[in-house]
Design goal:
single chain, alpha+beta, Structural Genomics Hypothetical 15.5 Kd Protein In mrcA-pckA Intergenic Region, Chain A, five-stranded antiparallel β-sheet, 3 helices
Length: 96
């Protein structure tokens, strides 16, 4: 997702974050266990369900256990795969 809190705040302020389907107005919006957060990132959309919180900052592995990724692969990733598979180099015709 993003690496810093300031990057996350910038996404929220720019309107790229939704909380339970509604665009948030400020990065200070409270988030509760069970909420669904939707992030519109550079080339993808991530849908995450909040499973819990921690009291202290910890390792990335521990942070991943606090949310469930609800994003499906059928959307943007499938269209990217289709686009990439369509990029076939044309065969050269032999010169006569």
């Amino acid at each position: 997702m993003v690496r810093t809190r300031s990057d996350a705040a910038a996404l929220a302020d720019a309107g790229y974050v939704r909380l339970n389907g509604k665009r948030i107005a400020a990065c200070s919006q409270p988030v509760r266990v069970g909420d669904v957060v939707t992030l519109a990132l550079d080339r993808s959309v991530r849908v995450l369900k909040v499973e819990g919180f921690c009291e202290r900052r910890g390792a990335a592995l521990a942070a991943r256990s606090l949310y469930r990724d609800l994003t499906t692969n059928s959307g943007a990733e499938a269209s990217i795969a289709a686009r990439d598979s369509a990029k076939v180099s044309p065969e050269k015709t032999p010169a006569e």
